[in-house]
Amino acid sequence: MADIELTDDLILLRKRADSAWALLREVQQRRGRPTVEEGWPAEAHEEWDAARLRWSEAVDTVQAAVGAWAAESGQRRIDVDARLTSVVRGGKDPQVWPEAAA
User: Fold this and answer.
1) What's the pTM?
2) Burial of 73 (C-beta count, 10 Å sphere; 0-12/13-18/19+)
3) pLDDT in tens, 47-85
């Protein structure tokens, strides 16, 4: 798997998805659970929905790019995705990548 070549675009897309995930988690941690006490106010739901949509779209984009790159390079999609995740995250949880701001 280490011999799988990754493009800069793939790496950037994964960083964008990881950044979106980290921001979604930050909203959840800051706002707490929506079912606790009286729940979230409308603006909290809007913030969470926007963050979740951004993350979902970023994941869809990276998955499509991984699939296309795997087909183009003759590699298994799962191997390309595992290599990409390993390179970007380095064994750490997803984080915000300032250079990946879209």
Assistant:
1) 0.86
2) middle
3) 989 999 999 999 999 999 999 999 999 999 999 999 999
Q: What is the DSSP letter of 1?
A: -
Alpha helices in the chain (DSSP H): 8-31, 42-73, 77-89
CA distance 40 to 37: 9
Q: Give the CA angle between residues 62, 53, 19 to the nearest 5°.
A: 55
Tens digit of each residue's pLDDT (9 = 90 or more) over 14-35: 999 999 999 999 998 888 776 6
Q: Rounded CA gap, 40 and 61, in Å?
A: 30
Q: Say which residue the tokens 């990946």 belong to.
A: 100
**Contact between residue 13 and residue 97 where contact means Cβ atoms under 8 Å apart:** no
Which two structure tokens, joined as six digits, stand for 71? 């087909």
- Alpha carbons 60 and 32: distance in angstroms, whole number: 26
